[in-house]
Design a protein that fits this description.
Length: about 325
Amino acid sequence: MNKSLISLILPSFNEEKNIPMIYEAIHNQMEPLHYDYELIFIDDGSQDHTLESIQMLASAHDQVKYISFTRNFGKEAAMLAGLEKSKGEAVIILDADLQHPSSLLPAMVEGYEEGYDQVIARRTRTGESPLRKALSSTFYKVINQLVDVTLENGIGDFRLLSRAVVNDILKLSEGNRFSKGLFSWVGYEEKVINYENVSRQEGDSKWSFSKLLNYAIDGLVSFNTKPLRVCFYAGLLTLLLSLGYIGFIFIEIIRTGIAVPGYFSTISAILFLGGVQLLSLGVVGEYIGRIYNEVKRRPHYLVKDTNIHDTKDQLTKQ
Ligand code: UDP
Ligand code: MG
């Protein structure tokens, strides 16, 4: 009987030094298990020799597959490409920078065998400063108040998904993808495994402060329309307050006549209202931008080179 297949998806952006090491690490963990496995490396428009590194591995090992993008499309697009091309009955997503310890793979597969559809690896923040810990836990508290899906501190994209979950994720066709939210949105029974934070050995983290901020806004806006409502209430409150203020001034004028021309009140009202309007416009723009992106229906990524040739693709080409 054929062994069943597990797919491992590795988004890789400028990870030339890490590729051979991560292959070795995964191979050591997966070899003893009773599964066949495939490694799908996604070269997300790397500017170093990541692609060459992967191609060398692929020529030596049949389990190594790759998809190379024409430019950097981001980790979300890379994960999507991997999920689309994966054939395994279970799929594991992990970073190519060795920060997701491959020693967890057997435990994840075991969770899958116990019948869980999602086995999630949670990072515990041992090596971090108390300030950073406090900051990130506050961040998650605030975010969870705002979005409709639960996002948990230390939980990222490192997880195993059953074929059923992958198929459901692939049915979600939105252009702005926020996987952390999508994984939680699809539901299914989950098992959580903890691991200790590992620091990166080779290369740099690709997350700048502005990327993180954009990621947080994506998470917020992709998952509900609460910011729109906040604007609505802020606008309503401002309107009521200014009406009250106008009424008050009006009575004052009737009672005591016009005093000093109200420079201060005029300028503050203009500034305040201007601020509220700009904020609201910004939020509305955020949603309109999203609608714009959705209606364009552009592909999430473009492939320059791959060694995965689906029979389905070949049929459509002929
Ligand atoms: N990555 C990617 N495209 C990007 C940025 C990152 O494919 O535009 C990959 C990267 O190679 C790594 C994983 O996503 O395997 C996580 O990135 P990184 O280590 O920079 O994030 P961090 O660990 O700091 O959260
Ligand atoms: Mg990393």
